[in-house]
Design goal:
The chain is mainly α. It is 64% helix and 1% strand. The model is unreliable at 157-166 (pLDDT under 50). GO terms for molecular function: endonuclease activity.
């Protein structure tokens, strides 16, 4: 006996029409229909049986449309983003909803949801709302994830325009071709510094074009870099420096990040998953595990990546490394915490140094008498008598 499934839309074509309004094809040059799509989903919700993925798409899209500082306060924009993002993540990973007693991180891994989403959801729920920059990037990545994991699989009946579902195999092959060509050019001779940079910029441009043409591109690129041994030389020995590799790939990845900022998040997650979950990384004598450690340390602490470091899922990386018995993971956790403590100490010292500068003269530090004299010249002085009456009590 066939099972009846009740949906809030009457026909599949209505669902596909809403999909094309949320995700218009590249060739579309008509009016922005996202607000209409959100209103349609709101009406569907009143009918019941609305899939969480559809509702989350509408909430995240509506938050993006709400992002107008001329009409709305920054506080309300951050709150709207936070609420939409938290509902999206909680509806997928909340163990109370899905019954089985598993952690949210485990549920996220089962679903292929970036673990950094769970960490950001925790931060938005229990701490201060994240910054607008972080929330905007997270919302965009969430919509990309929803396309890959829900909308792309909706059957297209051919009656509306839709984005073509990307073939993961062809995307990986395209990456492999570009990376092999770049590797061959770099190894063929010893180019000048200018020619070397030209090769790197050209490779970055080709990789960006693949990411532009494919919804799978940004997600697949970090894995391709590791699979093709681009970031880590398989012949590398323990203790060998990675400075030359950093010099080459920093340029390439940063060029890609200018067009697709989320690539640095996927890269960090790919590196930490290989470090923490790959059994081959357990040994303290593993040159590959050491290279993963050095890459993560470089991305998260080096001055070259300072402008991008706010995008990295630092809290998730720390949590994953702290819970792992892996030698290199624990060492990374210790180094990151030590770096954070140094930053906190320097921030605490900064106000004190600033105050000391204000009371110093050109020839040395001013004496307390000099400071008192200057304050008196500007109308400041000690209180002669102190009246400790409560506020609102008149003197007699």
């Amino acid at each position: 006996m066939s099972k009846l499934i009740f949906t809030p839309w009457k026909t599949k074509s209505q669902l596909l029409e809403v999909r094309s309004e949320f995700y218009p094809p590249p060739s579309y040059d008509g009016p922005d229909m996202r607000a209409h799509a959100c209103a349609t989903v709101e009406a569907w919700k009143l009918r019941g049986n609305l899939p969480h993925h559809v509702e989350a798409t509408a909430l995240l899209t509506d938050a993006i449309l709400h992002d107008d500082a001329q009409r709305n306060s920054i506080f309300s924009i951050r709150a709207t983003y936070s609420a939409a993002f938290c509902r999206f993540v909680t509806g997928l990973v909340d163990t109370k909803i899905h019954g089985q007693r598993r952690t949210m991180f485990q549920r996220a891994m089962d679903l292929g949801l970036p673990a950094s989403f769970v960490e950001l959801r925790h931060e938005a729920t229990h701490r201060e709302p994240p910054s607008l920059v972080v929330l905007r990037k997270a919302s965009q990545r969430s919509l990309e994830w929803l396309w890959d994991n829900h909308w792309a699989a909706v059957e297209d009946l051919g009656d509306v325009s839709s984005i073509q579902h990307d073939d993961k195999g062809s995307v990986k092959k395209a990456f492999r071709d570009v990376l092999r060509q770049f590797s061959t050019e770099a190894a063929s001779d010893t180019p000048s510094k200018k020619r070397k940079r030209d090769h790197e910029v050209s490779a970055a441009a080709q990789l960006v074009s693949i990411c532009d043409a494919s919804s799978e591109g940004v997600r697949s690129l970090p894995a391709a870099l590791l699979e093709q041994s681009m970031l880590i030389d398989p012949a590398r020995e323990l203790g060998e420096s990675l400075d030359d590799t950093f010099d080459t790939w920093d340029v390439v990845v940063q060029k890609i990040a200018e067009s697709h900022p989320s690539v640095v998040v996927y890269l960090a997650e790919e590196l930490v998953h290989s470090l923490v979950f790959d059994p081959a990384s357990d040994s303290s004598e593993s040159a590959y595990a050491e290279a993963l450690f050095l890459w993560l340390l470089h991305l998260l602490t080096s001055p070259e990546w300072e402008s991008q470091q706010s995008f990295f899922p630092r809290s998730y990386i720390l949590a994953a490394c702290s819970e792992s018995p892996n030698h290199w993971a624990k060492l990374l956790s210790d180094r990151l915490r030590e770096k954070s403590q140094k930053k906190a100490t320097s921030r605490a010292k900064a106000p004190a140094q600033k105050r000391s500068k204000t009371v110093s003269s050109q020839n040395g530090t001013a004496s307390p008498v000099d400071v008192d004299q200057k304050l008196r010249e500007h109308g400041w002085g000690p209180v002669e008598t102190w009246d400790s009456r409560p506020l609102g009590i008149a003197s007699t």
